[in-house]
């Protein structure tokens, strides 16, 4: 049986995607080769200053948003949030992170990075951790390269993918795919050839139930829904 294909869309600066990573890890542990998770990016924090300063102007601006994120994250004990998140070293845009990660993904696809090492997934997590636990400005290419160096990634090869425009082209494909599936929320999981989707902060048991339904349903049988 072919694995259940899951399209996972997220923004690197989204706290709910950071929180939800543990659920993806549990899916892989529980279902193994029965599921295949493809990471894609959707732009939610394309211009952080405009988005947050305008939308949170009446609620305390960036400090208000920072307080909101920290309060939302308090109930999740598996993550750490830096006290200065969204008030210091604020990334201008998540797009820079997404371009950098697309360069890593391309190198993995081309075999220049061993696919079995799952360095693309590990780099996503490393950038998220740097932002949420250290309040690092992960939109800064220097910070991204420092993270890549710690992970032992080929710096020159990554830079070449960015300089050539290939990483931007890959990100453009992701954004087109997000439009095709009308994805506007981070994180969003799409499976069953687009017929099922889970948006936002969805609990693990809900995700698991959807996967088990697809695995247990006989071939060709239509859903009752």
Helix content: 40-55%
Rounded to the nearest angstrom, the distance between the terminal CA atoms is 23 Å
| The CATH top-level class label | Alpha Beta
CATH superfamily: Glutaredoxin
Largest sheet properties: 4 strands, mixed
| Average pLDDT number | 93
Category by helix and strand content: alpha+beta
Oligomer: single chain
Provide the CATH architecture.
Answer: 3-Layer(aba) Sandwich
H-E string: EHEHHHHHHHEEH
How many E strands? 4
Number of domains: 1
Give me the side-by-side strand order of the main sheet.
2-1-3-4
Task: Tell me what portion of residues adopts beta-strand conformation.
Answer: 5-15%
Low-confidence parts, pLDDT < 50 over ≥5 residues?
A: none
Number of helices: 9
Report the CATH topology name: Glutaredoxin
Cα-atom radius of gyration: 18 Å
Shape: globular
Structure description:
With 225 residues, this protein is α+β, with helices and mostly antiparallel strands. It has a single domain (4-216), classed as Glutaredoxin (3-Layer(aba) Sandwich). The chain has helices at residues 15-31, 48-55, 61-73, 95-109, 119-134, 141-150, 155-163, 166-180, 204-216; strands at 4-10, 35-41, 188-191, 196-199. The protein has a 4-stranded mixed beta sheet with strand order 2-1-3-4, with helices on both faces. A hairpin with a 4-residue loop joins strand 3 (188-191) and strand 4 (196-199).
Give a quick precis of the structure.
The chain is of the alpha+beta class. It has helices spanning 15-31, 48-55, 61-73, 95-109, 119-134, 141-150, 155-163, 166-180, 204-216, and strands at 4-10, 35-41, 188-191, 196-199.
């Amino acid at each position: 049986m072919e694995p259940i294909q899951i399209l996972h869309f997220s923004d690197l600066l989204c706290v709910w995607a950071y929180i939800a990573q543990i659920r993806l890890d549990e899916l892989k542990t529980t279902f193994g080769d029965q599921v295949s998770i493809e990471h894609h990016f959707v732009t939610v924090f394309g211009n952080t200053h405009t988005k947050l300063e305008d939308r949170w102007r009446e609620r305390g601006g960036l400090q208000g948003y920072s307080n909101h994120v920290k309060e939302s994250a308090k109930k999740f004990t598996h993550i750490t949030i830096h006290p200065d998140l969204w008030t210091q070293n604020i990334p201008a845009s998540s797009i820079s992170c997404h371009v950098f990660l697309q360069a890593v993904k391309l190198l993995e696809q081309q075999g220049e990075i061993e696919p079995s090492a799952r360095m693309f997934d590990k780099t996503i997590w490393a950038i998220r951790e740097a932002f949420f636990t250290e309040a690092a400005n992960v939109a800064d290419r220097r910070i991204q390269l420092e993270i890549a160096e710690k992970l032992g990634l080929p710096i020159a090869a990554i830079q070449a993918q960015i300089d050539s425009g290939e990483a931007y082209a890959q990100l453009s494909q992701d954004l087109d795919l997000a439009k095709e599936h009308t994805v506007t929320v981070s994180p969003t999981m799409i499976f069953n050839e687009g017929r099922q989707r889970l948006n936002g902060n969805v609990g693990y048991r809900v995700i698991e139930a959807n996967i088990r339904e697809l695995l247990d349903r006989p071939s060709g049988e239509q859903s009752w829904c």
